[in-house]
Amino acid sequence: MAPICVLPNELMARILTIYAAETDTLFNLKWSKVMYVGRHWHELARAAQSLWSFIDLVWHGSYETLYNQLRHSGVAPLTIKLALGEYAQYTDIILDECERISSLLVTTRISYLDVSGTSQYVYELIGKLPECRLPILRSLSLDPSYKRDELPPNIVEAIPPVLFEGILPSLRELKLKSVAFPLGSLSGLTSISLTECLDISAGLPSIASFRGLLEMLGSCPELSTLKLELTTPEPIPQQSYPTVDLAALTWLQLREDVTLCTALLKHVRFPPTTSVHVLPSGVFNGMDIRELLVPLHKHARSPGAPALPLLQIDCHPYGTDSRNISYCTMALFTDTQLHDFLERSQAHCPFSLNSHPSTEVALRQIVAKVLKAIPGHLITHLDARNMSYPGEVSWKTILKLLPALETGYLRVNESAVPCVHALTQIEGLQQQRENFPRIQRLQVLIMPHTKSESENNMVDEFLAALGQYFTVCKGNETPFEVLDIEDPRYALSQTERQAQLERLFPLMGDRLLWNGQVYDPVKRREKLAKRKAEWKALAEKYGLDTE
């Protein structure tokens, strides 16, 4: 173990780079505060050219910053984020350094600017790219979608085919949105993201073909990430297509019509460890999703597929109309920790599927078909905190398809009470009881958004439903091994609700948790009496009115 002051400069520079990357400060230069530690660190950071090569002209654009970073970065490859709106004048300066640009992200989706004709700057840059030498450019992202409808009709919205004919020899990552490009010219890529893109391989967008897309994917055998949104052309009916083998694919996201998603999944072969996220349009009932589940069923049950013990179901109605469902998303995770919606793109979420059921009957059909297609018998945890729609019948359907379920996560909302009622009905069954799981741990989140009467009634109804469930379970096994209630706003502190909790206590004992602590009504009353006495003494000391 050596003191940090005697470490070699190369190792110290590596440590500073790790610090900047881990704190997400490479682009905003906030990592540079370490330069004030001492003269040695200041000189070391100034000499680390690669640390200065990450240039952000979207949020941190200024001539001074740009020139300073270009000067300090020396000959290091550049990674540039460029917003062609207010900072369009930087284009020529950046392209003067084109021979050492390794990553170029160009976007006009600037939330804090309202500049008319902004997309035109992106197309002007696209027109200049064929004149530049970009020998080490590995990552290219173009997004001219902002205010594109305001452009004149004669503006060319396409990448010149010559750009992919040797000008970008090192290109490996491509991200395009609302851009026409030559699909047949792409090859050797490791990452592809296409959103609302057209194919101009033969000069006309109308020749875009499903076969051409498969051939392009086949020319990228090392492809690791693939994202297609509203880009896939329609396959010709009754025509056979080749199957593309993407052995290196680790992440796949599709947002297309359900028929296009199905066609792609049937003609693209990838490892069982690939994370698959499908957001199909046109799925309103069980019939709509049946064909799509055939390749997904095969993928989920392939040898080597990861175990997926946690199922997360999000289901919300349209606005305040509980009769119409807005969407239903099912996601499976490799661990049993609770996850936020944005975490679904991470490695621990290998599968997610979205749908838009038209009715609750359609919801039951879709959920039932999905749970039969994936290994539902291996799911031990269910996260239903964001389910605000299903009724008792739907809950019974879901629970019956999860025979190994041990832990459930609920939030007190419109669907929590029907869930407990479904558990109560299941406990009352005799011959069919063995077909349903017995949940051992139930974690409940009570988080009312407001103090409205309806939300307060919801909490009361949930506690009453729990009481009924405990009554049915009386004389049998303990209802839950653990009942964990998270109540960050202490909605259960009211006297009436405390009485309801105390009625649950005899059956649960020290297995009833409230905000992470064992709930004991006797000790709680003693603690409250002690606090009341302390407050009274303090009030009398300072002459306050104890009433």
TrEMBL record:
Protein name: F-box domain-containing protein
Provenance organism: Mycena metata
Cross-referenced InterPro entries: LRR_dom_sf (IPR032675)
Gene3D superfamilies to which the protein is assigned, alphabetical: Ribonuclease Inhibitor
